[in-house]
Amino acid sequence: MSLFSDPTLLLCFTVLLGLAVGSFLNVVIHRLPKMMERQWRSECAELDGKEPPVGERYNLVVPRSRCPSCAQPITALQNIPVVSYLVLGGKCAGCKTRISPRYPFVEMVSAALAGYAAWRFGPTLAGVSAMVFVWAMIALTFIDLDTFYLPDDITLPLLWAGLLFNLGDAHVGLRSAVIGASAGYLALWSVFWLFKLVTGKEGMGYGDFKLLAAIGAWLGWQILPLVILLSSFVGVIIYVGLMLLGRHDRETPIPFGPYLAIAGVIALLHGPAINRQYLNLF
Fold first, then answer.
1. Most confident of 15-19, 48-52, 67-71, 189-193
2. pTM of the predicted model as reported, rounded to 2 decimal places
3. HSE-CB for 100 with a 13 A CA cutoff
4. Sign of dihedral through CA atoms 118, 120, 122, 126?
5. DSSP type of residue 75
6. How confident is the model at residue 3 (pLDDT cuts 50, 70, 90)?
7. Closest to 237 in 3D by CA, of 213, 212, 258, 206
8. I want to staple 18 with a disulfide (CB 3.0 to 4.6 A). Which of 23, 55, 114, 186 is the partner?
9. Does residue 1 carry a pLDDT above 60?
10. CB 51 within 8 Å of CB 155
11. 175 neighbors 160 (Cβ within 8 angstroms)
12. Which pLDDT tens digit goes with each residue over 186-214?
């Protein structure tokens, strides 16, 4: 009995893989924006004719993960996804500073979506690509929530990966994927400039254009209206909910990227079925 022929084994494997990837996504979410800021400071110094600031080597691998409060290194046993958080009681082993519950949450969401994608698509190219897609959406969602950035280091490789996967018709044909990438970018680019001409303000960032282009490259142009509709719907629900709970005020901007990412995941997993149900209404 092989891993790929037994649905239960495949599901268990992808859930465990999702937990491990989720742990890495926490590193990406935390470190990538800091890496970008370091690069920007270095580039600004060079343009100003100064020596770039020299500091500790910092990327997704080094330095070793450590507590931000006491700087105690995190051991391998303290870094087991979800399990270590529960064993430690959600606190640092050294200084007992509270660890954000978002870390195990990201790991569990990563595992749940990976498992669902494996169950939905099976051991196919579509299944592998679906897991890559949802993991990228998770990283982009939390980076945008924290920083209002949608890094090119994720959105642009994601766009090209979508086109490459669809060379093998993973989700749509290549023609639909190319048109989807172009239409996705131009759709929000047009809204951006129309809004700016009318109000004189920028309603969204360029990263949103690239994210929708990437979604179009993965899922094709036919799914883009649904993604835009779903992202708006999800955004309204979350915004109203935050307002009612007193967690947000009208003057504070909110990132649009997380809503696009959530809509993209829904469209990936159930987009064609939703489209069919919607068209049947008419």
1. 15-19
2. 0.91
3. 10
4. negative
5. P
6. low
7. 258
8. 114
9. no
10. no
11. no
12. 998 888 888 888 887 777 778 999 999 99
- SS3 at position 98: strand
Q: What percent of the chain has pLDDT over 70?
A: 94
Two tokens, residue 40: 């920007």
CA-to-CA distance for 131 and 133, rounded, in angstroms?
A: 5
- Please, what sign has the CA dihedral across residues 263, 269, 272, 274? negative
User: pLDDT over 90 for what percent of the chain?
Assistant: 53
The one-letter amino acid at 60: L
Helices 125-147 + 102-121 axis angle, to 10: 150
Which of 101, 140, 171, 152 shows the shortest CA–CA distance to 258? 140
Q: Which two tokens stand for residue 276?
A: 């069919």
| Residues 148/254, Cβ–Cβ less than 8 Å | no
On the 0-12 / 13-18 / 19+ scale of CB atoms within 10 A, 162 is: buried
Q: For residue 131, what is the enclosing H or E element?
A: helix 125-147
Residue 110: both structure tokens together: 């990563």
DSSP state of 116: H
Q: Are 60 and 32 in contact (CB under 8 A)?
A: yes
pLDDT in tens, 115-145: 999 999 988 999 999 999 999 999 999 999 9
CA 238 to CA 173: how far, in whole Å? 34
Whole-angstrom distance, CA of residue 166 vs CA of residue 229 = 24
Lowest mean pLDDT among 45-59, 76-90, 161-175: 45-59
Closest CA to 269 of 117, 83, 155: 117
Which SS3 state, helix, strand or coil, does residue 51 take?
Answer: coil
Give the span between the Cα atoms of 83 and 142, in whole angstroms. Answer: 22
Inter-residue contact 67 to 178 (CB < 8 Å): no
Token pair listed for 140: 């982009």
Q: What is the mean pLDDT of the segment spanning 222-232?
A: 91
